[in-house]
């Protein structure tokens, strides 16, 4: 094994670690942006109107 290549391997590993850290940071930021967009869409939905009288939907008719 050539000892002169140890420095090259070390530099390559350092660059790989830095690249991985940048990729993970960007992924986290993208997930945060998507979460914010989803929350805005959910909040923009109209509230359902309750048109039923309060006595409807309180029991189930089991006789058919």
Can you tell me about this structure?
The protein has 64 residues and is mainly α. It has a domain at 3-44. The chain is 61% helix and 0% strand. It contains one helix and no strands. The longest helix is centred in the middle third of the chain and has 39 residues, at 6-44. The radius of gyration is 29 Å and the shape is rod-shaped.
- In the predicted model, the low-confidence regions spanning at least 5 consecutive residues are none
The total count of strands amounts to 0
Mean pLDDT: 83
Note the overall shape.
rod-shaped
End-to-end C-alpha gap: 85 Å
* Rg from alpha-carbon coordinates: 29 Å
Tally of alpha and pi helices = 1
Instruction: Determine the structural class based on helices, strands and strand pairing.
Output: mainly alpha
Q: Topology as H/E string?
A: H
Strand fraction band?
under 5%
Task: Write a brief structural summary.
By secondary structure, the protein is mostly helical.
What's the structural blueprint in terms of helices and strands?
Elements: H1 6-44
Features:
1 helix; 64 residues; mainly alpha; single chain
